[in-house]
Amino acid sequence: MQAPGTRPPREDEILHDPGEDDVRTGATAAFGAVVHESGEDLGAEHGGPLEDHPVAGFEGAPGALAELTEPFTRPAVLVRSVSPPLHFGTHALFVDVGYVYAAMGLLVAGSAERRAFRVDAEQLITGLIDEARRVFPEGRLLRVYWYDGARERVHTVEQRQIAELPDVKVRLGNLNAHNQQKGVDSLIRSDLESLARNHAIDDAVVISGDEDLVSAVEAAQSYGVRVHLWGVEPAYGTNQADPLVWEADVTRMLHREFCETCVTPVMLPPSHAGVPIMRPGGPPTAEQAWRIGQEIAERWLVVRGRENLADLMPGPMLPQAIDRGLLVDAESVLQYSLRPHEDLRRALRNGFWDRLNHEFGLSGAESAES
């Protein structure tokens, strides 16, 4: 029965139930067809860019909706899931040239003095970049930082040629009258910390052995940078400070085969002339023990840094811990115990002091006798 004062609704006033086709048509007009990268219309098989999700009908709806008893489908806009792009991390190489040249020279030419060998710097840098590509196959190289020393920080001919290479930045510390590098470690620390703090790199490859870089490694790691410590295969013993090795996230070794591609011996160091080769495990002569002392001093200058060994000067006594370390290193090379041989231990210390005296310009200083 119709309520008083009302009239039957006209046909065009009856609430229309939006059927599936109507809704699809409207949605397509509003959103357009979704086309896959291949060119296929993702909604073609459904009649439009929509995905059907069955839902219950609306209960109590006026007009024709009130008469619906079967569920109908309500469309939803198709949402495409887009995978995030792959992350390509950025890495940089920090090359302590003093360490690399000395360690490679000892390994290939038998001497850490640069006059005893020639280095093809371009080949070395290319090899280091190739090694980094193998470690970071999807990474991006920021640049190679090349840390070396020069008198009054004036580039040598070789350093100018290196500076012209692509993706290489030459950073120079000072070189004093005794050919000691000054300020190189501070340059490495400054660059490493700055790049890490500004999130310019994700990975840092540090090629060095100096313990003074431990604080720089810690600082870079605090900004989320992973530090990869690369070293040169030691000629004997070790040529990287243990605290630096312990602090790094990853360590890697450049083996002799790699070094031989870019290092060419040009002469034998004077201390080796006329010295017979010694068999491992056999008792050394005093001259051989003296030579081993020189070689250990050479290696310590590379690993521990000249600044640290300068604290031992002018001698002639060695602190107990240093003397014990010298003895242990010598015995590992000789594969022979020097403990019962006081004369050989004295020759060992004398060779060690002679190398340090030469390094610091104290050739006439008294040698150790205890």
UniProtKB/TrEMBL annotation:
Matching entries from Pfam families are given as: NYN
Species assigned in the record: Embleya scabrispora
Official protein name in the record:
NYN domain-containing protein
User: Could you tell me which InterPro entries the record lists for this protein?
Assistant: NYN
List all Basic and acidic residues biased stretches.
8-24
Gene3D superfamilies (UniProt xref): 5'-nuclease (3.40.50.1010)
- Region of interest called Disordered, as start-end residue ranges on this chain: 1-27, 40-59
NYN domain boundaries: 92-236
GO MF entry, a single one:
RNA nuclease activity
**Superkingdom of source:** Bacteria
